[in-house]
Amino acid sequence: MTHAVDSKPTVALLCGGRSSEHSISLITACGVLGAIDHEKYNVVTIGITRDGKWYLTDENQLKDLTTQEALATFPEGGQQVFLPLGAGDNRLRLVNENDELEYGEPIDVVFPLLHGPFGEDGTLQGLLEMADLKYVGCGVTSSAVAMDKHFMKVAFEAAGLEVGPYEVITMRQWATDAQGARERIEKLGYPVFVKPARAGSSFGITKVDSADQLDAAIEEAHRFDPKLVIEAGIVGREIECAVLDTADNGRPRASYPGEIVVQDVEHSFYDFEAKYVSKTSATTQCPADLPESVTEKMRELAVEAFLAVDGEGLSRADFFYTEDGRLVINEVNTLPGFTPISMYKTMWENSGIQYPDLIDELITLALKRPLGLR
């Protein structure tokens, strides 16, 4: 079943989800709902609980949730939703109050606003491919590679991009040879950053300044992921650059870079509280104060990083700009924060694309792109 020729496309916004970034996803959804062009698109909003159940929701419910507490949780209840089953039928499946299955409106494109595992790691993208639903953002493989900080660095190195020194520690390695793991980490020198390989929003990340802090940091990171990446500390400014795809396989575009400056001495790096809770711990500067040659080089490298993971749709590339003038790629994020204050949206606004137009362009790209083998 499809829409009439002259009807508006229907966009399904997905938010919440099963990852540690559940609450940030709800905030993102509020921002997108407030900026999307409702005259151009029909919008269906679906909230996903922390245990993976899908329910219809709306902007008012999400606003109530996200204004009550910083770590909001989408509640169970309401009309439950199931994805279409493919085979050319793109209607949502809904469960009514009598536990009977009924059909909702056809969905033309899905806008995943889910951060972290089970949202931007390829699992959801595979589900949408199987359901024959078009969607915003990277495909299955690129999403999975970009979610895993280990394999992402391997892809960057293969593309000739400079990455900082790092080690990978799996749960098996830590259980069978913890001392060997410690010795490998020691060679990086302190400080190091202990990170879950497949988490985001700084969950589970600890800055470790000495060996006596290492075991506790590893245990903390293992709460989020059995696989860890330990990165050597790099002295340099942290600069970000947004990437936006183009139709017809043209070269992706890069925004002017932006910089987040952590000002609060209580935050030694840009952790979760500095990002989402504290109102005074960090400031943003966009465009970043960089020499013109460095700005253009970073924009070029951001696109190269996007291409290294075979990206589609959008990404945000994070770099270190060192004192000796090197640009070291840290990571790319294939579904970056999309709130009204997020850097991805802010960098594009400072590069000439306003928030509603940015949302429109991402949806348009997704509608034009075919499904399959991504």
From TrEMBL:
As its record notes, the protein acts as a catalyst of: 2 D-alanine + ATP = D-alanyl-D-alanine + ADP + phosphate + H(+)
- The protein's annotated pathway: Glycan biosynthesis; Cell wall biogenesis; peptidoglycan biosynthesis
Species lineage:
Bacteria, Bacillati, Actinomycetota, Actinomycetes, Micrococcales
List the EC numbers from the record.
Answer: 6.3.2.4
Cofactor needs = Mn(2+); Mg(2+)
Which GO biological process annotations does it have?
A: cell wall organization; peptidoglycan biosynthetic process; regulation of cell shape
Q: What's the protein here called? A: D-alanine--D-alanine ligase
Active-site positions, per UniProt?
E21, S201, S342
Residue positions annotated to bind Mg(2+) 2 are: E331, N333
* GO cellular component entries: cytosol
Q: Per the record's keyword annotation, is Transferase included, yes or no?
A: no
Instruction: Write down the species.
Output: Rothia terrae
Protein role: Cell wall formation.
Give the Pfam families listed for this entry.
Dala_Dala_lig_C, Dala_Dala_lig_N
Question: Which family does this protein fall into?
Answer: Belongs to the D-alanine--D-alanine ligase family.
| UniProt keyword annotations, A-Z | ATP-binding, Cell shape, Cell wall biogenesis/degradation, Cytoplasm, Ligase, Magnesium, Manganese, Metal-binding, Nucleotide-binding, Peptidoglycan synthesis
Residues the record lists as binding ATP: 149, 193-195, 201-202, 231-238, 330-331
Known PANTHER family for this protein? D-ALANINE--D-ALANINE LIGASE, D-ALANINE--D-ALANINE LIGASE A
Binding of Mg(2+) 1 occurs at: D318, E331
One example of the protein's molecular function in GO is:
metal ion binding
Output the InterPro entries linked to this UniProt entry: ATP-grasp, ATP_grasp_subdomain_1, D-Ala_lig_Van_CS, D_ala_D_ala, Dala_Dala_lig_C, Dala_Dala_lig_N, PreATP-grasp_dom_sf
Compartments it resides in: Cytoplasm
Cite the cofactor comment.
Answer: Binds 2 magnesium or manganese ions per subunit.
